Amino acid sequence: MYQRKKIIKAIDNRRLSLKNEGEKNWFKYKLRITKLYWSRNLFDGYQIEIFDKRTDFYIDTVVV
User: Fold this and answer.
1) Starting at the edge strand that comes first in sequence, how are the strands of the sheet with 22-26 ordered?
2) Residue 51's closest CA among 18, 26, 16, 17?
3) pTM of the entire structure?
4) Residue, of 44 and 15, whose pLDDT is higher
């Protein structure tokens, strides 16, 4: 739960960019960023899956 608040705050403060889709390392986490679409050509948001950087253990999913 703490990771979710940290990610949302970083996005709001523009410290975490969501422009590039895919995996990226961010501090002690590995993030998998996926763009979400409801239908053709309509942008809906992002899904961010949070993993531990060292063990690849799944932690949480955030939809923004």
Assistant:
1) 22-26, 29-39, 42-52, 58-63
2) 26
3) 0.83
4) 15
